[in-house]
Design the sequence.
């Protein structure tokens, strides 16, 4: 028996287009004498479509195209692919969900000889960016609550060419924390080959954990496992996810026998006979540096987000700082130097150092470059607004006064909303947001200024990863793409005399420390509380705690040097925590979409309300003791 | 037995503060000889706190303060109030949820004589802004999946002062579409008084439906029902919800015996004896105009969103159009005329008509007024950007050209991000977004221009409601607050000669039609599909379909007059649908938070992805036939 998986690209919310992709894969498979073609989860509807799942006409189309695809099967050619189904289609009778909406399920179509069976997804993720129970019934609920059947109806072996397949969907394979283990159940029922169709986005480090995980399933159950993941770019509005593929297969000893690349469309074939599976000319796993994966993901994300939105040209405000420099290098690679324009926008506070870096960067990339000074407009705003008189009906007057800090923000907004926006619209393009995750965490940026832009490609990268990626790009190119000067320059907004880079002045953040601190607030699965952090500071092992087993520049000495006593430590901790939970939330609400690469990107992946920061009793008690 | 409910204000994510509010209510109740005090759902933690539910230190504090409050009870004084509980606290043993996070439940604390029992919420809403299953186990799951108990453990009668109470939480009372009916179960078990503690936000029309609904429960089950809803302002980042109270009680015949006002803190007492309940000096239901409710909600929303964020002063760009006029009238009422500054920002395209309206408005409101012309800055931008030369490393040059349309957007951004932002920061305040729901639906606004602002108070109001509210404000004040000229003026952006109001030119939207059309796309529970709409147009009954049983200016003649044939109809339909699902999504991603008043506000209440518009087979086939 010849089995193939096709790692295909799925477009969100376009069953007609996805049907074509699947149909082409089926045609290729039939031509190649394949007996069973396996395609990813949700291959027909796509996955992240928001409340479009509530549009019944859309579901009708998904079912129509799923059934059309199933018609491609015959005696010698079967299909397994993911789609959505109404309860009615699966169980033959109409049924509403718990809250009155038509009941729907995330299913695998198992089609043989024109006939369709369904496997309903059992474990529905409901954390991070996932919210499947909002739209779908899980297998247990659908099978036991509404039908007259029993729980044994939940799992069935699917006989194709006399081989018994056990079919699962994505989270079904990640059963560690659940009270049902679908792969185990199917394995014990006598499945000869276990299949997991997925549609699972890239997260740094996930690939290796996935290999370990499914290898264990294969070894424990003594069955071959075929894992098929899709490609594509999907979003939930605020957060953009890159689906990287990395489909794979393991033999019944848990050995990895095939592993597809990231972001490449691939057909991979297997022969199955008498309990043994072997791969035919299959791609093999290549261990890669995590930075390489992140880099590939950002390039894929930028390229596809632009093409999905019909965009071609990009304008970047290039300050000569490290963030806009990395952004420029990524966009040049993703969309081509001819579509990229760097704009330097100096004020009197900008150093020749950073201006030279921006020029050199444009030269290295071979892209367009120009310069537009901000001073004249800043002066105009000062002249128009500073001292502006207002009156009321009682004949009183009052005057607006702009402070130095107000003028810093005037400059930032002038760059984003006046200059870059005008240039981008005149050129028929868009301009970027270059904020990193560290800034985004505490809102160290100006709304409608550097917070503006069509896409925040760096929004899920901590500052240290921004540097690492710059070095990675140079080392990969074996030449200087990123001007090396930027790697040693003190990061600075250069918006006032207090931020003069040539005097070694700049940002108020101690990046090696604050990166890790903010990561512990926001990104850990078991997030660190302020009480945890203060306790570890007092115990003298905060660096270890924050490094979380990862390599880092941060050590205990750095912490002690910057915060010699509890008072300075607490003041810094609370300063940033209040911003993180306060003003920064307001800025994130109006910030552009972020390409997710970590376990928690801002936006839909990390749901937050604009509420006042809260200090727990535990923290307040600990602090009181520490400050005594 | 003396029973009281307190309709109190709950702060999201602040158990310490909420404990104080509840403690005060308990103290008042004890002083008044009350035997049982009932407080709203989630009275200790608050409700909309995003992924803060995953912070275990926060839950610890919620439990601590809940238990502290329970200690206030004694032999003669019991409490029922909402909070969150770990599985461990309720069942006495630790248990993780399905995906490894610590299991938590939305519960009612039932405290008597210092002892606590828990009623777990049975029906968890998972639609619109709700996502309770993301964080909480439901009663069935918690009771039957993890404990050794049976399903009968889910519901218990709670004996207080020898009276049997059946306690439910919010959605538990809205069982129409669910397969479990908690109130019915408890009624049939022999409850003498049914209680529903809620934390349910305002939605236009919900109050009357609630009265009907719970009256039916009381009548059918022949038991008195006490419904206690909280007050407060909570948000999910993009969407702000006003919790209006409107707590009430019904006797066992379903008669409404008490009904609290909207947004007022109230203690209401009842006497219960021998199956009979009576209210003591209780507030009674006053039938109100829906506009009055919406008006009250917007005032409450503005006032509380500002105070929660420590804001006092507001700047409004007053164009003399109807939207900014309504915004100004609302803010003047919510925050006081002394905290409000209207800024008129004319270009050469602005008419004396609208400038005069803006001046008159400021005069009527008694607030601050000033004027800042945009032309000089627009000229500067044109001079700097139009014809701007860029070069590349190959010595090529290219030139940026700004079109008339580009210059319209330059003006809009200049008003928002340069002038209003600078004035607001100089005055120590914020500036508003005045966009209505119709514009928001199709993105008829400029990003970083009129899309900017700290809050979109009008973002959930269709254009016709904007007019209605203006008239309501004048009629309520019995004088002209809103200059009447604005009510008859053609709506226009006044950004070019093609939008000259004095020539009767303006917006491309036919509001009486497009309001209803967009409402059918976005706001209906069963949303209209393009195929539905086109079919009704062809059948000649589209106005009826879109009016949806509501009064409206729209009739079939208006539709025929504007779209005499299928071709013009389809062109208009697709033009706006593509914007709704396309560019407008990108703008909404970066738009400010909206105060929700309808059944679907944009933001967290209507989840959407930035994906290409999709036309279903059904629509495409119908269109093909229609255009033949």
Sequence:
């Amino acid at each position: 028996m010849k089995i193939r998986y096709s790692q295909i690209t799925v477009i969100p919310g376009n069953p007609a287009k996805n049907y074509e992709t699947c149909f082409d894969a089926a045609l290729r498979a039939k031509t190649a004498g394949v007996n069973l073609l396996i395609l990813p989860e949700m291959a027909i509807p796509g996955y992240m479509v928001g409340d479009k799942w509530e549009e019944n006409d859309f579901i009708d189309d998904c079912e129509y195209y799923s059934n059309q695809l199933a018609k491609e099967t015959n005696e010698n050619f079967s299909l397994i692919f993911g789609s959505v189904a109404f309860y009615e289609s699966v169980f033959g009778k109409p049924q509403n969900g718990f809250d009155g909406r038509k009941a729907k399920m995330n299913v695998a179509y198992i089609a043989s000889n024109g006939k369709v069976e369904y496997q309903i997804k059992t474990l529905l993720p409901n954390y991070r960016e996932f919210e499947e129970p909002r739209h779908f019934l899980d297998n247990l609920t659908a099978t036991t609550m509404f039908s007259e059947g029993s729980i044994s109806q939940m799992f069935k072996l699917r006989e194709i060419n006399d081989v018994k397949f056990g079919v699962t969907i994505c989270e079904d394979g990640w059963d560690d924390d659940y009270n049902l283990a679908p792969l185990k159940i199917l394995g014990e029922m006598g499945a000869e080959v276990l299949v997991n169709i997925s549609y699972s986005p890239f997260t740094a480090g996930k690939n290796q954990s996935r290999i370990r995980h499914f290898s264990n399933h294969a070894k424990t159950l003594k069955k071959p496992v075929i894992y098929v993941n899709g490609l594509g770019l999907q979003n939930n509005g605020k957060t953009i996810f890159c689906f990287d593929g990395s489909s794979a297969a393991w033999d019944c000893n848990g050995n990895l026998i095939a592993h597809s690349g990231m972001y490449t469309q691939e057909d991979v074939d297997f022969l199955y006979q008498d309990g043994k599976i072997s791969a035919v000319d299959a791609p093999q796993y290549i261990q890669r540096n995590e930075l390489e994966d992140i880099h590939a993901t950002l390039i894929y994300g930028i390229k596809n987000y632009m093409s999905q939105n019909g965009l071609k040209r990009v304008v970047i405000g290039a300050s000569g700082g490290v963030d806009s420099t990395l952004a420029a290098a990524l966009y040049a690679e993703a969309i081509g130097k001819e579509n990229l324009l760097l704009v330097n926008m100096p004020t009197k506070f900008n150093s020749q150092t950073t201006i030279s870096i921006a020029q050199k960067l444009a030269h290295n990339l071979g892209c367009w470059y120009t310069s537009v000074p901000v001073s004249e407009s800043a002066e105009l705003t000062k002249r128009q607004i500073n001292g502006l008189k207002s009156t009321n009906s009682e004949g009183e007057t009052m005057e607006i006064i702009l402070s130095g800090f107000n003028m810093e923000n005037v400059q930032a907004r002038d760059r984003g909303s006046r200059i870059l926006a005008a240039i981008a619209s005149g050129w028929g393009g868009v301009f970027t947001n270059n904020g990193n995750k560290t800034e985004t965490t505490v809102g160290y940026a100006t709304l409608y200024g550097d917070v503006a832009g069509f896409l925040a490609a760096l929004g899920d990268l901590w500052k240290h990863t921004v540097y690492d990626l710059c070095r990675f790009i140079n080392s990969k190119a074996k030449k200087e793409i990123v001007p090396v000067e930027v790697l040693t320059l003190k990061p600075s907004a250069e918006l006032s005399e207090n931020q003069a880079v040539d005097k070694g002045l700049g940002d108020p953040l101690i990046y090696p420390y604050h990166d890790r601190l903010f990561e512990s607030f926001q990104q850990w699965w078991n997030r660190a509380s302020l009480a945890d952090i203060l306790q570890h500071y007092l115990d003298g092992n905060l660096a270890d705690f924050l490094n979380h087993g990862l390599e880092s520049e941060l050590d205990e000495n750095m912490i002690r040097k910057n915060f010699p006593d509890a008072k300075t430590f607490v003041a810094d901790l609370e300063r940033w925590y209040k911003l993180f939970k306060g003003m920064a939330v307001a800025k994130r609400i109006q910030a552009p979409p972020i390409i997710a690469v970590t376990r928690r990107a801002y936006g839909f992946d990390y749901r937050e309300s604009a509420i006042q920061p809260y200090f727990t009793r535990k923290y307040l008690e600990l602090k009181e003791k520490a400050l005594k």
